[in-house]
Amino acid sequence: MEFFGVPKSKILFLLNGIDIETNSSSIDIRKGTSQEAFLAVAMARLVGWKGIDRILRALPESVKLVPELNLVVIGDGSQRKLLERLTVSLGISNIVRFLGSIPHNKIIDTLKQGDLFISTQYFSNLSNCLFEAILAGLPIISLADGSLVGFLENGVNSILLDPQNIKRDLPQAIEKIARDRAFYRRLKKGIIEKSNEIWTWQERIAFELKTIENIISKRRT
Fold first, then answer.
1. Which of 76, 94, 119, 196 is most buried when burial is the number of CB atoms within 10 A of its CB?
2. Percent of residues in the chain assigned helix, strand, coil, to nearest 5
3. Rounded to whole angstroms, how far apart are CA atoms 144 and 120?
4. From residue 208, how far is each of 15, 133, 147, 195, 213 by CA, in Å?
5. Which residue ranges form the domains of the chain, and what is each CATH number?
6. What is the chain's mean pLDDT, rounded?
7. Whole-angstrom Cα distance, residue 18 to residue 33?
8. For 6-15, 37-46, 125-134, 162-171, which range has the lowest pLDDT when averaged over its residues?
9. Strand ranges (DSSP E) for 76-167?
């Protein structure tokens, strides 16, 4: 909009709302893991640009630093079989579980069982899946790709990696969160505070309508 000469004071960008539905019968994503497992979660439609492959390629080094690391992938899509084969070729199929799609009303309660959420999409990482992970209170590892500017803050509620060095930097980021409990608690606190900024769709639409009404009212006076 700035390209067209619209001043920043005239621009209002609203995030998507989230349909917050909960159901106490969440999916057990720790099934088959040890009691000491450090559980990372990724959630996306399993297509190429969602970047699940980037996470998988960093796991061989990650598990050397955090041997108790496990990854659960929530979601389904055309690349699921390809990604499952990738875990075999990388020698990590024993620590990666593809859960498939789960009912929407179970997502947030299911995510709460995890220790960490990872999002490394090739385009924007500002997604509904990220919002749901925040509502579940999970610390975030994502990318400093410009899509999260003004929303997540590196070292406060997330670790934001260089998109060009994910395979190199993701293992150290996972180790930092898994081993530094004070740092983990700080991220957790920051995420809980950030969760207060996420609206339901009803709240978002009500705000949008009120804003439009105010603009129309000012133009009439």
1. 119
2. 45, 15, 40
3. 10
4. 11, 24, 22, 20, 9
5. 34-220 (3.40.50.2000)
6. 89
7. 30
8. 6-15
9. 96-100, 116-118, 140-143, 158-161
H helices of 66-200, in order, are 80-90, 107-111, 128-135, 166-179, 181-195
Cα–Cα dist 168/179, whole Å:
18
- Altogether, the residues listed in the chain come to a count of 221
pLDDT value at residue 198:
81
pLDDT tens-place string over residues 70-81: 999 999 999 999
Contact 147, 120 (CB under 8 A): no
What is the spatial distance between Cα 173 and Cα 207, in angstroms, rounded to a whole number? Answer: 37
